[in-house]
Write a structure and sequence with these properties.
The structure is a single chain. With about 140 residues, the chain is α+β, with helices and mostly antiparallel strands. It has one domain: Ribosomal protein S19/S15 (30s Ribosomal Protein S19, Chain A), CATH 3.30.860.10. Helix content is about 40%, strand content about 10%. It has helices spanning about 1-15, 25-30, 30-35, 40-50, 50-65, 130-135; strands at about 15-20, 20, 70, 85-90, 95-100. β1 (about 15-20) and β2 (about 20) form a beta hairpin.
Length: about 140
């Protein structure tokens, strides 16, 4: 009996849940039905822009069928269960940064996972920038 309980717990821990629903159940739902499980701000965004989000999901699925890389400038798109498992190139202003969507990202936006600013590595001061290097300049 203890083994059965342990096996049940292991199989349940492998499943991915979001707000009490499995990921497989959420993938079958419509975009507006999935919005009911999101927090207030993403729910409002999804309900107002569901047509754009559905168009983006359809585009992603079509590109996967043709074995092409998915690239987008749409950093505001809310991540939904149908996008889980996809790798999307999100534009940072300079290049496309690959983001692999996981179930923990549902309800967040694509832009949150692709940073636009990088860490600055300052080098040494240039010639003439300090008093001691000015004498070498002359």
């Amino acid at each position: 009996m203890a083994k059965e309980r342990k096996n049940r717990q292991e199989s349940r821990s492998k499943e991915q849940f979001y707000r009490g629903k499995t990921l497989a159940e959420l993938k079958t739902l419509d975009v507006r039905e999935v919005a009911k499980f999101l927090a207030a701000r993403p729910r409002r965004t999804v309900l107002r822009n569901f047509d754009k989000i559905e168009k983006f999901i359809a585009l992603c699925e079509a590109k996967i069928i043709r074995n092409k890389k998915i690239k987008t400038h749409l950093r505001r798109i809310v991540i939904l269960p149908k996008l889980v498992g996809m790798t999307i190139g999100v534009y940072t202003g300079k290049e496309f940064q690959d983001v692999t969507i996981t179930h923990e990202m549902i309800g967040h936006r694509l832009g949150e996972f692709s940073q636009t600013r990088s860490k600055v590595n300052h080098g040494s001061a240039g010639l003439g920038a300090t008093k001691s290097s000015r004498t070498q300049k002359k």
